[in-house]
Amino acid sequence: xxxxxxxxxxxxxxxxxxxxxxxxxxxxxxxxxxxxxxxxxxxxxxxxxxxxxxxxxxxxxxxxxxxxxxxxxxxxxxxxxxxxxxxxxxxxxxxxxxxx
Length: 100
Fold this sequence. Notes:
Layout (H helix, E strand, L loop, with lengths): L8 E8 L4 E8 L5 E8 L2 E5 L6 H7 L3 H32 L4
Antiparallel strand pairs: 1-2, 2-3, 3-4
């Protein structure tokens, strides 16, 4: 990825074993700008930076095991809900496919 300064930004990973958490982000080797953080707990994406707001990076800095588990449960519920919505949409499309 190219940094705003024009140099190359490479992927970095920071691990917090006690929380089973991992933060992936880009860091520029010239200006040290950091961007696009994604926080994983037990290999499930739980939070991502959004625009200019470093949600994932800020959460990682203050992460404790209970907070990590709470984020993981929220992410699992969201994934489960998305799966139900996708399945409902697939069924609706299949049911209406011949209603032309």
